[in-house]
Write a structure and sequence with these properties.
CATH class of one domain: Mainly Beta
Largest sheet: 6 strands, antiparallel, barrel
Distance between the termini: 35 Å
Helix content: 25-40%
CATH architecture of one domain: Beta Barrel
Strand order of the largest sheet: 12-13-16-17-15-14
GO molecular function: cholesterol binding
Number of strands: 25
Membrane topology: Peripheral membrane protein
Radius of gyration: 34 Å
Shape: extended
Strand content: 15-25%
InterPro entries: OSBP_sf, Oxysterol-bd, Oxysterol-bd_CS, PH-like_dom_sf, PH_domain
Protein name: Oxysterol-binding protein
Subcellular location: Membrane
């Protein structure tokens, strides 16, 4: 299939050009692409080999077709059928009439020419003098008639062109009026919701604590008692947006010292004890006291002094449109980009940057409750986006076989290793071990599309986190990142979508919703909300905050089903204790705006280190030249490295085709430090760390590393 056909295939289709084909045993075949995996079983080993050979030949053909074709898939949304009919209906009628006139003109010209020939023949005959004059007059009239008919046809064509141009103008005006109407409807809807909230607040005013003369100016709502009795909820009340695929919920902050269960309609579905929210010994409380310097561990060696700045970013001008106009609809990884669009870090280093708030996982180890531990894992999953709010530059695409290590075992208690295990599609494997009691691993494939005005980045693949002592195994996936104003305006980035974190041991879940930015929304920008529930669906905690600043956690003491909302969804009312801050973003270093908005950790990621592998990203020459401000030299070096990689890929593809034609197996590229296995939890084919890297580093034996730089 061509790539255009692949865009319209049925659900579940796998693109062979980017698929991984593996064999498990004598009869089983594993076919995977990104987050989708198929397990196929043949009747015999001979039949399995025939299938593998056929699939490999088809994959080689698909790769050749992909390399020879340009991705012309249109990403613009088609106009609605009504818009098309309104625009093209009158034009089609006018065009039809113009064709009729053109046909008549051709007939007039044909018959006029025949008439002129007849008159010319009459003129050649010997006729009386007065007859010749009359024939000449008739001939002149026929010529004048033909000229007039041609002028009429030209005038009709001008009229059609004018009608077409005005029709486009009218269509634009109509579309503008429709957008204005939609904005007005949304504004009215917002006003109606605010009006309902105010009405509820006014109705709930008599139900506040006795002796309270006023309502907090920051309160957004309240909950009435069941029998009209005085309630103890006199603190600030917060309303949380509903999850898309779950009932809407409202949270009401209660005072744990004066909380009374009797006389409240919040009892029922879920209950908790305020005394469980221990203010002295709780792990949650310790999270409020942590800072970047204090949370790194006092039982480890003192932190090594590392660099705190890099050379300032040069101010180079570039014609963006001249590069971007030929890139619409193409995979970002296939577009030759100058370093002007990059930041001096690779995607492997950007992936490692997710560990900036690793102390959240160190605290999670100390949690005795799995739902409490889930709160820290959820905060950690959100914290990985905090550095992206100003980071609109593109990281370097790693070369196949490129690695990156971050050995902070003696300072921070963990060591991390990344490797680029696939180039098309680009995929990176990551493994982190912490001596404080947790291990994290993932394989991320980046799917990206440039859509003219914005760029969508869709990470595929699951993130796994396991705690050693409890055996709790958490799995989640990343949300979609969108870079706006690619062509005109100031670049800005947004995160949108949902994250479902699942503890596969206890079956606890956390649903997090990243609310996309809306010009007409009154919500806090970059808002994140969620609920932590156990295996029975009982809610225990409410998560709230923003992905660029902080995340808070509120313990639920009661929950009940409230009234049905205007949208027809039944709201769940959660009564919670005061929220506690689990995570807060570290301030950026001084002069960060001139250093690509790098965080304190990001500034150290590309710092030269000794004894690293020869494939480490720190040794990549184009990236090092860019960091030094020598962008012209970096562009030349980048083109050299990419051409070197293309030559290796062409040689590998030729070897694959030759091996298949000879009936031999061809394994293709084999990762250095990772191996592909079927994950026991998700059933997906994933690259996991097989060991050997840190031992090779101790011996300084890098003989298995290829020459990629």
């Amino acid at each position: 299939r061509t790539q255009a056909e692949m865009a319209h295939t049925c659900r579940g289709t796998i693109n062979l050009s980017t698929a991984h084909i593996d064999t498990e045993d004598s009869c089983n075949i594993v076919l995977s692409n990104g987050g989708r995996t198929y397990h196929l079983k043949a009747n015999s080993e001979v039949e399995r080999q025939r299938w593998v050979t056929a699939l490999e030949l088809a994959k080689a053909k698909a790769i050749r077709m992909r390399n020879n074709q340009s991705d012309d898939s249109g990403d613009e949304e088609p106009a609605s059928q009504s818009d098309k009919s309104e625009l093209h209906g009158p034009l089609k009628t006018l065009s039809s009439k113009l064709e009729d006139l053109s046909t008549c003109n051709e007939l007039i010209a044909k018959h006029g020419a025949a008439l002129q020939r007849s008159l010319s023949e009459l003129e050649s005959l010997r006729l009386p003098a007065d007859s010749g004059e009359k024939i000449k007059a008739v001939n002149e009239r026929a010529t004048l008639f033909r000229i007039t008919s041609n002028a009429m046809i030209n005038a009709c064509r001008d009229f059609l062109d004018l009608a077409e141009s005005h029709s486009r103008k009218w269509q634009r005006l109509l579309q503008h009026e429709r957008e204005q109407r939609i904005r007005l409807e949304e504004t009215i809807e917002q006003l109606a919701k605010q009006h309902n909230s105010l009405e509820r607040a006014c109705r709930g005013a008599p139900g506040l604590a006795s002796g309270t003369a006023s309502i907090s100016s920051t309160a957004k709502g309240s909950v009435q008692s069941a029998k009209g009795e005085a309630s103890d909820e006199d603190e600030e009340t917060e309303y949380f947006d509903a999850m898309e695929d779950a009932p809407a919920f409202i949270t009401v902050t209660a005072d744990p010292k004066h909380h009374r269960r009797s006389g409240s309609n919040l009892s029922g579905a879920s209950e908790g004890h305020p005394e469980d929210w221990n203010l002295e010994d709780s792990v949650f409380e310790s999270s409020n006291q942590s800072s970047y310097n204090e949370s790194t561990g006092k039982d480890l060696l003192p932190r090594k002094r590392r660099r705190s700045r890099i050379p300032d970013k040069p101010n180079y001008s570039l014609n963006l449109w001249s590069i971007m106009k030929n890139c619409i609809g193409k995979e970002l990884s296939k577009i030759p980009m100058p370093v002007n669009f990059n930041e001096p870090l690779s995607m492997l280093q950007r992936l490692t940057e997710d560990l900036e708030y690793h102390e959240l996982l160190d605290k999670a180890v100390k949690c005795e409750s799995s739902t409490e531990q889930m709160c820290f894992v959820a905060a950690f999953s959100v914290s990985s986006y905090s550095t992206t709010v100003h980071r609109t530059a593109k990281p370097f695409n790693p070369l196949l076989g490129e690695t990156y290590e971050l050995d902070r075992l003696e300072e921070l208690g963990f060591r991390s290793l990344c490797e680029q295990v696939s180039h098309h599609p680009p995929a990176a494997a990551h493994h982190v071990y912490s001596r404080r009691g947790w291990t994290l691993w993932q394989e991320i494939t980046i799917a990206s599309k440039f859509r003219g005005k914005y760029l969508s980045i869709m990470p595929l693949g699951a993130i796994h986190l396991e705690f050693h002592s409890s055996g709790n195994h958490y799995v989640w996936r990343k949300v979609t990142s969108t870079v706006h104003n690619i062509i005109v305006g100031k670049l800005w980035i947004d995160q949108s979508g949902e994250i479902e974190i699942v503890n596969h041991k206890s079956k606890d879940k956390c649903q997090l919703k990243f609310t996309p930015y809306s010009y007409f929304s009154r919500d806090v920008p970059r808002k994140v909300t969620g609920v932590v529930s156990d295996a029975d669906g009982k809610a225990h905690y409410v998560m709230s905050g923003t992905w660029d600043e902080k995340m808070e956690c509120s313990k639920i003491v009661h929950s009940s089903h409230g009234s049905t909302s205007t949208e027809g969804k039944q709201k769940t009312v959660y009564q919670t204790l005061s929220p506690k801050v689990l995570w807060r973003k570290y301030p950026l270093p001084e002069n960060a705006e001139n250093m690509y908005f790098f965080s304190e950790l990001a500034l150290t990621l590309n710092e030269p280190e000794e004894r690293v592998a020869p494939t480490d990203s720190r040794l990549r020459p184009d990236q090092r030249l860019m960091e030094s401000g020598r962008w012209d030299e970096a562009n030349v070096e980048k083109q050299r490295l990419e051409e070197k990689q293309r030559a290796v890929r062409r040689r590998r593809e030729a070897e694959a085709v030759e091996a298949l034609e000879e009936g031999k197996d061809y394994e293709g590229y084999i990762p250095l430090w990772f191996e592909r296995k079927v994950d026991a939890v998700t059933g997906e084919l994933i690259c996991v760390y097989k060991g050997g890297y840190w031992e090779a580093k101790d011996k300084q034996d890098w003989s298995v590393c290829p020459d990629i730089f």
